[in-house]
Amino acid sequence: MLFKEIHLSGIKSGKITLAFRRWQKASVKAGSLIYTSIGRVEIGKIEAVSEHDISDKDAQHAGFPDKEQLLKSLNRGGSAGTIFRVAVSYHSADPRIELRGQAALPEQEFADLERKLAKLDRFSKQGDWTRSVLFAIKENPHLHAIGIAKLTGFEKEWLKLNIRKLKNLGLTISHPVGYELSPLGNAYIKMRLAKNHGCFIGT
User: Fold this and answer.
1) d(CA 67, CA 65)
2) Sequence-ordered list of residues with C-beta below 8 angstroms from that of 121, at least 6 positions apart, any chain
3) Is the dihedral of CA 10, 16, 18, 21 positive or negative?
4) Vertex 38: Cα angle to 33 and 44 (nearest 5)
5) Which of 146, 203, 152 lies closest to 178 in space, CA to CA?
6) Which residues contact 191 (CB under 8 A, 6 or more apart)?
7) How far apart, in whole angstroms, are the C-alpha atoms of residue 172 and residue 154?
8) How far from the centroid of its chain's Cα atoms is residue 87's Cα?
9) Element (H, E) at 33
């Protein structure tokens, strides 16, 4: 679930407490947390509504001046699908920001990362992928997903989805164009290289 920056500011300040979306079916669940540029946004009650159920006050709580402007936004891509009213609120800062800024990696935390990355490899149909992708990003900072895909042999959309998993571990940083390793990601690779005497890929 994506939000415009102007609406995110309103959510963080508490002025915006609702969001309206037109979906075939609800794409988020009540109680889930969405990572955004302002931190984590919590999803509250979700209910299907008709255009007649929406009031000007609802529209204002969603960051629009009135119902008419809200409906224009909802109908911009066509009127197919159901309108959902979603309660939203600011939850907390993004914990990944503090995590990825960590430049030193204690032995136990390194071991925990090793286990998590091994699990990502084990449950992937692509086989072992985490280390080759991390190494490609390290050697090619700010390279876009298509470029990383060509270097690693993985399909672009699959790669983008799975780099997000590395980001959730605090290992990568996403930019408007491309990616780079976080301080934590660089610390992990440094320790991995040291433990394997300079052999990174395929170890």
Assistant:
1) 7
2) 127, 128, 129, 130
3) negative
4) 30
5) 146
6) 105, 110
7) 18
8) 20
9) strand 33-36
Q: What is the pLDDT of residues 161-172, one digit of tens each?
A: 999 999 989 999
CA 82, distance to chain mean position in Å, is: 25
Ramachandran area for residue 31 (φ above 0: left; ψ -120 to 50: alpha; else beta): left
Boundary residue ending a domain (59, 93, 127): 93
The confidence score (pLDDT) of residue 201 equals: 42
Helix H or strand E segment including 134: helix 130-139
Domain at 36, CATH number: 2.30.130.30
- Return the SS3 of 91: strand
Q: What is the pLDDT of residues 109-127, one digit of tens each?
A: 999 999 999 999 999 999 9
Average pLDDT over residues 83-92: 96
Domain that holds residue 163: 96-195
Question: Would the pTM count as exceeding 0.90?
Answer: no
Q: What CATH number is associated with residue 184?
A: 1.10.10.10
Stretch among 49-63, 101-115, 158-172 having the lowest mean pLDDT: 101-115
Tell whether 173 and 104 lie within a shared domain.
yes
111 to each of 19, 31, 97, 107, 131, how far by Cα in Å? 41, 31, 21, 6, 15
